[in-house]
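Person: Please comment on this record:
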Amino acid sequence: MDMDTDMDTGMRTAGVGRRREPRTGTANLLVFLGLLPLDILVGGYAWLAVGMRGWAAAHNGEDAALPVTELLWSGGLLTAIGVALCWGRFRAAAVVQFALTVVVMAVLSSSYG
């Protein structure tokens, strides 16, 4: 006899072996689309910081330096959103969020060699 089932009803006992199921694909899509403006805002800030630093360096005749602080803040915020999505069982949206963060940070970092 299985320890997780009740003899009479064949149902699981409350609290034993309970797993949190992930959300549906539609819910994941809606959450991701709802967070897309925030992602664009945070990614745009990082893009602007990198572009301004590069422009200022080129204008002053200096070597361009990667604005690490701005990239860390932007990447950290996007990653924190992904972690919150994982915690909220929006796993597909979290995977897309992490992939988006990696792509944005890779593109912004690659512009400085």
Notes: Residues 25-110 form one domain. Residues 78 and 100 are 9 Å apart (CA to CA).
